[in-house]
Design goal:
single chain, mainly alpha, two-stranded antiparallel ribbon, 2 strands
Length: 133
């Protein structure tokens, strides 16, 4: 391989690496990036008239129902613990690691779990302090 080819590959790799870092550090919006997923994928089971796990998912009350609230399935852990995804029960349920933490039930959304993209977005939002933005 020529030095020119290696230099171009290095430049491309560096550009992709730097782009990935900037994308990962972008602020996640609860309202724009997460709430639509929760309402679309979770509200069917978590409705006000029969909330599974005592959790109601709707546009008006989801944030206050998640952030800083103890999980009913694992009371020693919050549903969302700002700054700590590995101590956030909802995140663990979405990536199917809730049983290892001492939780119970199925992973969520039921039958599929979170997509890797949604799990990453949720993790980054929690790491950013889980702001109501």
């Amino acid at each position: 391989m020529s030095n020119e080819f290696l230099a171009r590959c290095g430049t491309i790799f560096l550009t992709l690496f730097i782009s990935g870092i900037s994308l990962a550090s972008e602020e996640v919006s609860f309202k724009d990036d997460l709430l639509p997923h929760f309402v679309y994928e979770c509200a069917t089971c978590h409705q006000a008239y029969d909330p599974h796990g005592g959790l109601v998912i709707d546009e008006a009350s989801t944030y206050v129902a998640l952030v800083g609230v103890p999980s009913l399935q694992l009371p020693g852990m919050k549903r969302i613990e700002p700054g700590k995804p590995e101590q956030s029960y909802l995140y663990l349920k979405g990536i199917n690691r809730h049983l290892q933490a001492g939780g119970s039930g199925w992973f969520m959304p039921l039958g599929t779990g979170m997509t890797p993209e949604l799990a990453d977005t949720l993790r980054r939002w929690i790491e950013q302090g889980a702001p109501n933005n």
